[in-house]
């Protein structure tokens, strides 16, 4: 157990020693000079040493005071920094956003710096989960849901509609659908089995490719692993063009041909009684702008690819 003098006496002494004045210390502490003098007198009696030589127009710190002062000064400075840090943390706005592991890793994480530039006063915390999370409490503020909706009991902001197409590493030199059978097909398991899932079976039927088995190749339980396999040149994957947009822009992946399949739509959802409506509106506007930008770039890339094919026909 610490045996310390009263905090008021220590504060009065530290201020008086820093200013070399009882009067200025009193102004800082919003008390009278007499009160400062009284607190210091009590401290001197407690310590059994004289801390100031008192003169008519000034006070002079003794050797004992000069020994005590730096310790108290550094201690009060540390207190002030800790209190300020806690106050700043409480004052900062924050949101916790849940998304699937693939969307968080492939789309959100690369754009964290963009969000911070757009909203420097809003902290974004990411929660990755492939299972839908409950939004009725206050641990998770919002979630990215992928589907056709509706989402009963939640406010849902439509974001981008997704599209799927074959993509692969440029090292495969794949250019024609007729050559698709030369490489393994890369699949990932959908959480829900639906007839309208954009799968290789649907793509092969729509593309009119009949000499490739739709269930052949390698199956991954996680979409991110299928993307990594495609980047490593392990085969051709039917992937979300939104999630691989940065890789298509950089040339790490290519989309050698169509057609493209319609996927589902991303939605930002949150509880209707959320206390962070302004923050959620800012997040929604940023998500829409970023996804619109990806869509415009993807459209430009498709137009450029069609022009190259037309020129080589």
UniProtKB/TrEMBL annotation:
Signal peptide: none annotated. Residues 5-62 form the HTH lysR-type domain. Gene3D superfamilies: Periplasmic binding protein-like II (3.40.190.10), Winged helix-like DNA-binding domain superfamily/Winged helix DNA-binding domain (1.10.10.10). Pfam families: HTH_1, LysR_substrate. Keywords: DNA-binding, Transcription, Transcription regulation. InterPro entries: LysR-type_TF_proteobact-type, LysR_HTH_N, LysR_subst-bd, WH-like_DNA-bd_sf, WH_DNA-bd_sf. The keyword Lipoprotein does not apply. PANTHER family: GLYCINE CLEAVAGE SYSTEM TRANSCRIPTIONAL ACTIVATOR, HTH-TYPE TRANSCRIPTIONAL REGULATOR. It comes from Fulvimonas yonginensis. NCBIfam families: PRK11139.1. Belongs to the LysR transcriptional regulatory family. This is Transcriptional regulator GcvA.
């Amino acid at each position: 157990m610490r045996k310390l003098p009263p905090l008021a006496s220590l504060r009065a002494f530290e201020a008086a020693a820093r200013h070399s004045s009882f009067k200025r210390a009193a102004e800082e502490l919003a008390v009278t000079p007499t009160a400062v003098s009284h607190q210091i007198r009590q401290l001197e009696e407690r310590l059994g040493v004289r801390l100031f030589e008192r003169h008519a127009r000034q006070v002079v710190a003794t050797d004992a005071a000069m020994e005590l002062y730096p310790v108290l000064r550094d201690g009060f400075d540390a207190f002030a920094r800790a209190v300020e840090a806690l106050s700043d943390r409480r004052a900062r706005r924050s949101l916790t956003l849940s998304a699937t592991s693939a969307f968080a890793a492939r789309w959100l994480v690369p754009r964290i710096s963009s969000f911070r530039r757009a909203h420097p006063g809003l902290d974004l915390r990411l929660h990755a989960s492939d299972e839908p999370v409950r939004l009725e409490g206050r641990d998770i503020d919002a979630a990215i849901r992928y589907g056709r909706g509706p989402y009963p009991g939640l406010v849902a902001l439509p974001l981008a509609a997704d599209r799927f197409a074959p993509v692969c590493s440029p090292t495969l030199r794949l250019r024609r659908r007729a050559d698709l059978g030369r490489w393994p097909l890369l699949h990932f398991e959908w959480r829900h089995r639906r007839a309208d899932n954009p799968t290789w079976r649907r793509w092969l039927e729509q593309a009119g490719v009949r000499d490739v088995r739709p269930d052949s190749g390698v199956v991954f339980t996680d979409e991110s692993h299928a993307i990594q396999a495609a980047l490593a040149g392990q085969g051709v994957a039917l992937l979300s063009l939104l999630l691989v947009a940065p890789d298509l822009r950089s040339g790490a992946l290519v989309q050698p041909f169509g057609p493209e399949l319609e996927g589902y739509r991303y939605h930002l959802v949150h509880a209707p009684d959320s206390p962070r409506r302004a923050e959620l509106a800012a997040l929604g506007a940023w998500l829409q702008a970023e996804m619109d930008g990806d869509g415009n770039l993807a459209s430009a890339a498709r137009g450029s690819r069609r022009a190259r094919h037309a020129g080589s026909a």
